[in-house]
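ARCHIVE CARD
Drawer: 12
Card no.: 0347
Subject: one protein chain, sequence and derived structure
Cross-reference: see card 0346
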Amino acid sequence: MTLSFHQIHNDDLPTVLRLFKEAAEKIAKMKIDHWQYWKNPPADKIKWVKDGINNNEYFFIKNTNHATIGMVRILNEDILYWGLQQASALYVHSLTVKEEYNGQGIGKLILDTIEHQAKMKQCEYLRLDADSKNPRLCNYYESLGFKKVGEKTLTISTYNLYQKEIL
């Protein structure tokens, strides 16, 4: 399957929030307390999304039929979770895949595509975080070669910090 990334714009905010809500509902069905604030997001989370859209960090992910199958946020730095870093990296946030596309290897394909972008930018790492209350997601990232290198506690939860060396 070929994926394409399409810049998200301010007028796409309702679609972005709907994708977050759908992801939160999917996670809740698995009895995991992760991302549940996206069912009715607080103002600070909506501002966080708007800031990312205004910084051109959010992308819809489309398949070969041009159907939107998910979204992702890609940052060049992530001060909130990682602080200032010396090594160059791309940071992945808000990775969602619509439920009907689960189990098709799309998450891996998305991360592989972003890893290729990082390599083209001569980054040393691809970095992301996962809520420590979601062991299934943490195990998934580890199965893809990400190594846990730290933790970050915020008011909402504690997050495991993962990185993958770009070779």
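Annotation on reverse: The domain at 4-165 is CATH 3.40.630.30 (Aminopeptidase). The chain has a mean pLDDT of 95.
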